[in-house]
Amino acid sequence: MKTRVLVILLIALQSITSAQAQELEYYAVFLEGTKVGYATHERIAGDGKVTTTETMSMTINRAGIEITVKTKETCVESSGGEPISFANEQDIGMGTMKTQGVIGKDGLVRTQTTGMGVVQESNMVWPKGAMMAEGLRLLEMSKKLNEGTGYEVNIFSPELMAAVLSRVKVGARQDVDLLGRIVTLTKVETTMSMPGTGEITTTSFVDDKLNMLKSIMPTAGMNVELVACPKEYALTNNEPAEIVDKMFLASPEPIENIDSARSITYYLKPIEGAGNFIIPAAGGQRVDRLDNGMVKVTVEPVNVTTGGTLPYKGTDKELLDAIKPSRYLQSDDPKIIELAKRAVGNAKDSAEAARNIESFVADYVEDRSLSVGYASASEVAASRKGDCTEFAILSAAMCRAAGIPAKVVMGVAYVDDFAGRSGFGGHAWTQVYTGGKWVGLDSALKAGGKKGFDAGHIALASGNGEPADFFNIASTLGRFKIEKVMVNSSK
Questions:
Q1: What are the pLDDT digits (tens) for 314-365?
Q2: Does 478 lie in the same domain as 330?
Q3: Are residues 223 and 326 in the same domain?
Q4: Quick one: which of 12, 31, 38, 422 could link to 202 by a disulfide (CB 3.0–4.6 Å)?
């Protein structure tokens, strides 16, 4: 599974913006102290409009494989901060996906997403009170930088296509090291959260004109920093940091014959000072918070081999939503529809059809490459390339195309050997609704010779494969360790 720190970093960059129209501002991006990329911020005002553009490029290593992910967000607002339109572009090495949105006076947002020759149009309601860059800048100017000042604001992220509730608190002035240059700046803490997820707190340092000169964010157990700097330094060569180890959790003991485990109970111990974290309960995963502060998670895979209407014809809103196409699960793409038909074959019910799709995708994705940043289902269908996330994305989209409610799940899964590592690594898989239950599928593990989904999976988030679904991963990993594992083997 890929880290999505770029998404959260762009929100952080937007949360403390420049107070005046300036030349393009540059930032160096550091991951665990290593320079891995750069970011830019630009504000252009004129003709009653303000256009704010933020870009970021970051290069990382995954088990020695180098990946560069680039994103660009543009917000257009009135001079008074009223939202007009937005655009988001991301290049993950397999082409560019672009989403554009126009906010109508009726509060309806008309969006269009393009990528890999697929065009999707949809509508959404603008989140009440949500602000983009200029509206936020004006709010910050009105609040001023008085120590102890605090307020809440909804920051709209074009990439997340959602508003992130943010609590802002102004701190004291202090001396800050800007790549060897000591400057006295004001500390500003921004705590971001989304419904059903944990929190991420960014610590920024701004000058008297509200220019953000340094930002520090703990994300997925890693510290990411943005530091204002000259263009020449921002664009110097990077030294990609290895992130696989950061995405791994140690197991207190090896887990033998995990395929045959009926269930596994995990005791998660919060890391001191790391703050609260949220573990969802769904799809065969039960969660209990114990009096000693630990979180008890029991994973018992649901084994449904037959049953379920094909296609789903019920009226449950959650399930109906889990059949609709989305930006990353383009279940209305003719290529994906054709693949789904091939995979389903003569299956008579949704359980059999889902198992057929799981096996089909396990064989269909030929190049199990770690070089893919984050691909949509249409991109995977065309390239037949990717790792666990791409397996999960394509499986979910094909299930939806067949009329089976499906979602993408992100979390960690136990592996006894991945690039010389063992333990619980960041992972993605699929859940489908069949026979009255949510059932786990794992085409990636099946492709690797395993049976597929097993009790070695701990879910941290789920959804439509959207970047917003990764928020809980970013806010949860690094906040706990697995203290104890209890395996209940099959008879």
A1: 999 999 999 999 989 999 999 999 999 999 999 999 999 999 999 999 999 9
A2: yes
A3: no
A4: 12
